[in-house]
Amino acid sequence: MVNKTLTYWGPSFEEDVININVGGLRRRLSSSALSKFPDTRLGRLLSCDSEESILQLCDDYDVSAREFYFDRNPGFFLYVLHFYQTGKLHVMEELCVFSFCQEIEYWGINEFFLDSCCSYRYHERKLEGEQRGHRLWLTMENPGYSIPSKLFSFVSISVVLVSIATMCIHSMPEYQEADEAGNVLDEAVLHKLEYFCISWFTFEVSSRLLLSPNPKKFFKHPLNLIDIVSVDSELGNLGKVVQVFRLMRIFRVLKLARHSTGLRSLGATLKHSYREVGILLLYLAVGVSVFSGVAYTAEKEEDVGFDTIPACWWWGTVSMTTVGYGDVVPVTVAGKLAASGCILGGILVVALPITIIFNKFSHFYRKQKALEAAVRNSEKKDAEDTESCSSHDRDSEALSETSLGRGSP
């Protein structure tokens, strides 16, 4: 029950401390520590501006005491506090791995924040005791899981490349056929290859859906959505609508991200760097607007392509990004000075956020590599345990036969 109606929740509140009560364990946290992790549950409290938004994050709250109540495991909350203090998450050994996953998911903490001392053991425990269906899921999902998964990954990559090559060859006139009405038809061999690729993609996405541990999350994963979009075999008779879906075949190249550590790390980097990307786009937009106006003023009388300010936006974009196509070039001294400033400003503007994004990419790449190493080591350990058990059984059987032989007359 809400103890007091929300009366004030303003910027000055963020400068104070708030009280967090988890299962009777009461701790004080500064808003500055929480603001470092705005995507977590406690970090999102700072941006709440209504009772409804607050109660979506906590079980109860008292505005006068600035205290928020959570009905969760108080022992695990100590690990959450350590995370906000150090930025590193440690595994609570008393919890099973699935309960630990539920706890960090509730608090909005990504497993990427696991410290290196706990990451290997966490992923190892996460993979223990898995059923055959989940092993098949990992075989299809993780190219480094086992030898069969590597073979499956190789076949999948080959089919994707064949599909992309087929799409590109189909655009060449010498490989196009026309019927009596003049409609363009697929060449017979290309048509069969396309149907084979579609059949493989259908099998792949159907198998992943059937073996998925969580079907609801399956449809939220971007790579799975790309797989679904890649399957368009039933759209052959929809007239011009099929052309749109044929164009979407180019997204099949993104399926390669499933088999590439670098591409997956890049996707995670962009997902967690939307603020930096937004700042980069904002800087570029401001720079393009300013320098386009200056170039228009300096070049509008010269008839060299700077006829309007919107027409100058293209020149400003290629100049600030240091691409420089050269299709539109200033000829006056003032225009050239504006172009020089635009290029130099673009170098500075792009360099600042790119450094932050690169550091995040390095972080996620190391985490992804550690995860793949944990999976491989777990598979190797399982194989060694199986071999050890088999060897023990053979020794026991031999000992039994020896004993029987000695006991016989």
TrEMBL record:
Residue span of region Disordered: 376-409
Domain BTB: residue ranges: 16-125
GO MF, any single term: delayed rectifier potassium channel activity
Membrane-spanning intervals of the chain: 280-298, 337-358
Membrane association type: Multi-pass membrane protein
SUPFAM superfamilies given in the database record: POZ domain, Voltage-gated potassium channels
Entries under SMART domains matching the protein: BTB
Signal peptide interval: none
A GO biological process held by the record: protein homooligomerization
Annotated Pfam families: BTB_2, Ion_trans
Keywords: Cell membrane, Ion channel, Ion transport, Membrane, Potassium, Potassium channel, Potassium transport, Transmembrane, Transmembrane helix, Transport, Voltage-gated channel
Gene Ontology CC: cytoplasm; voltage-gated potassium channel complex
Family as reported in the entry's similarity comment: Belongs to the potassium channel family. S (TC 1.A.1.2) subfamily. Kv9.1/KCNS1 sub-subfamily.
Primary role: Potassium channel regulatory subunit that modulate the delayed rectifier voltage-gated potassium channel activity of KCNB1 and KCNB2 by altering their kinetics, expression levels, and shifting the half-inactivation potential to more polarized values. While it does not form functional channels on its own, it can form functional heterotetrameric channels with KCNB1 and KCNB2. Each regulatory subunit has unique regulatory properties that can lead to extensive inhibition, significant changes in kinetics, and/or substantial shifts in the voltage dependencies of the inactivation process.
Protein's UniProt name: Delayed-rectifier potassium channel regulatory subunit KCNS1
Organism: Anas platyrhynchos
